[in-house]
Amino acid sequence: MTDFLQLLTQGIALGAVYGLTALGFVVVYKATAVINFAHGELLLLGAYLVYAFHAQAGLPFVAAVPLAMASMAAVGWAIERGVLRRMVGRPTFAVVMITIGLAIVFRQTATAVWGFDDLLLGDPWGASRVALGDLRVSAASVASLAAAGALFTAFLLFFRSSKAGIAMRATAIDQEAALAVGIPVRAVYAWSWMIAGATATVAGVFLAAFPATLHPGLGFVAFRAFPAAILGGLDSPGGAVIGGLLVGVTELLVQGYQPQFAPWLGDNFHVAASYLLMIAVLVARPYGLFGTREVERV
Amino acid sequence: MTRRPEGLRTRYAEELALLGKRADRVWVALLAASYVAAPLVLDDFWLSVLTFTAIAAIGAIGLNLLTGFAGQVSLGHGFFIGMGAYSVGVLGGDLGLPVVVWLPAAGLLGALVGLAIGPFALRLKGLYLAIVTLGLVFVGDHVFRNARLLTGGPQGRAIPSPRLGELNFADLGSALGLPLGREQSFFLFVVPLLALAVLAAKNIARTRTGRAFQAIRDREIAASIVGVDVARYKVGAFVVSSFYASAAGALLGSYLRHVTPDRFDLLLSIQYVAMVIVGGVGSVYGSVFGALFIVLVPRLVEQVSPLIPFVTRTAGASGVTVFTLNQIVFGLLIIVFLVAEPLGLAGIWRRLRLYFRMWPFSY
Q1: Whole-angstrom Cα distance, residue B69 to residue A175?
Q2: CA atoms of B58 and B191, how far apart (whole Å)
């Protein structure tokens, strides 16, 4: 039972980070109808920037993270302004391929600058653990849960009540109507990319801090968050959170129990498991658990 | 005789014709002549580039039929390539079947999996479908790594040469008594298969099936209203495309002699999509150009890199390695082509031809 709870809490903490990553997908998708395949690389760059500001330049961690978030927001803005704005009105898949191109360029730039070695982020939690009753949970996972919770809440409040958030929602529903009532749609696109950049940094920091160390493969974690975003429904921020938790918990439970109960499924089955879960959900609900069905017109 | 501008066709027969114009026939004759001449004139480096191109082009044509013609997005093409390669290992290697059996059989196995994936496309749209096919890559990778009996696990397995009785297509020299090495033989073996693939794809594209694909791509609901059986053709597109991919994978495996699961990662799928984009979406010949481009560029970067001062040649080092540079060039190419030249190389070619045809009145 303790084992189960241990796996469950770890799964929830990992799920929170996946949820945060999935949120980045959802924000961009909702405003601009693009799946950002470069999100994993934004996450990677964000984490490396924190490393650069904190471990290399010697800034305190609490200053390095906001600084990196701001820089990544600028990167997001630059992507939107420099590349994607030229792609307005082109087939969605073309835009997706552009983000794949960006992903490759970013990842290689990161390895060119920081190399392939495992780096230590130098985060304040380190390897310390917190006891919760019988459970021993790493401090970083508690912090990630808290930070993810705070960011989700802030994001939902922003989306629900702030003027900018309402403008973003209106743009997501109907771009032309939003333009007609005076919403600066272009600015909304830029905001959504900036939010994606900033949240990616936080997700990157926690990924580098607790399941792994900082290395170029971190960008691939975004591929683990894809099922999360899809499961929840690509245009549902709440769905991203729930999808993230589902994927995180599934992954950890499969990792914990599959070698023991179903060894014939092979090594590292947990990576494939979240995709299988996603495919199963999509067969039943083609737009995810909470996604909106697209209306089709002739 | 007055010249009509390119692309203006006045009769349906012209639209259907494979080799309608004299220029087309001249091109085919030229290509056939260079096919015979190439193994004698070109060195091993260029022959291997062309062999890789021919194999990749077969796969790219398949993806273009699916994505470019039928409009169904797939990031899982690399999985089918891998399936083809491993099925040759099993059919040709473990069971010792000849190439005339394993090549179609590999294609059919791929087509069967395509038949199983196709129905997802009926239920899912656009990006959701793209992500499911992405899932295929991850699930496939897991299977390739773990079905050790068939795939040899992470260390990979040997893939046999294409043989037919005594004839080994990877070593035609000894059979024909000509000075042909492995590169020359494989080139001679693969290129006719590419020609066959192009011909079949052209036939699919210019007939009822191709028009149905394009109708589905352009507006699915409208297509179904005019009587296109959307479900049948969507699944059909998946079946055809995975047949092509799996056959290409079979050839690739046989050419490489040994394959590991790493080879069939997401990047391979992305490379195939890039071939389609760079070549020209919805153009069969474009896929061939695109394949040549995507195969050639990394080789050229490798050749040029010693001249660039900041590039190091050791793998795994920090700083800009040849691999890093290659990847960056590849990523930038995708972006530049999509932003600046959405019609791809086929579009550039068409414009160039138009320019010279209309000269001196080109604009």
Answers
A1: 29
A2: 10
The total domain count for chain B is 1
User: Position B96: which residue type?
Assistant: G
Among A92, A100, A215, A247, most B C-beta atoms within 10 A, so best to mutate, is A100
3-state helix, strand, coil in chain A (%, to 5): 75, 5, 20
* B286 within some domain: yes
Q: Which helix (H) or strand (E) holds A98?
A: helix A92-114
- A15 phi, psi to nearest 5 deg: -60, -35
Query: Residue B328 is nearest to which of A108, A116, A298, comparing CB atoms?
Result: A108
Task: Judge whether B21 lies within some domain.
Answer: no
How far is it, in rounded angstroms, from Cα B111 to Cα B244?
8
Residue of A nearest to B132 (CA): A279
CA of A149 vs chain B CAs: smallest distance (Å): 27
Q: How far is B258 from chain A (nearest CA, A)?
A: 22
Distance from C-alpha of B246 to C-alpha of B240, rounded to nearest angstrom: 10
Instruction: Report the alpha-carbon distance of residue A226 to residue A210 in Å, rounded.
Output: 20
B212/A contact by beta carbon, under 8 A: no
Range of the domain at B314: 39-358
Nearest CA in chain B to A294: B125
Q: Looking at this protein, which amino acid is placed at residue B209?
A: T
Supply φ then ψ for residue A115, to 5 degrees. Answer: 80, -175
Q: What is the ipTM of this complex?
A: 0.85
Q: What is the pLDDT of residue B57?
A: 97
Q: Evaluate whether residue B318 is within a structural domain.
A: yes
pLDDT tens profile B52-83: 999 999 999 999 999 999 988 899 999 999 99
- Supply B75's token pair: 């990031």
In B193-284, where do the E strands start and end? 258-259
* CATH code of B140's domain: 1.10.3470
Span A66-89, pLDDT tens digits:
999 999 999 999 999 988 888 877
Secondary structure (3-state) at B308: coil
Nearest CA to B298 out of B267, B276, B265 is that of B267
Phi-psi region of B167 (alpha: psi -120 to 50; beta: other; left: phi over 0): beta
Instruction: Identify whether B20 is part of a domain.
Output: no
Chain B segment 271-300 residues within 8 A of A by beta carbon are: 273-274, 277
3-state helix, strand, coil in chain B (%, to 5): 75, 5, 20
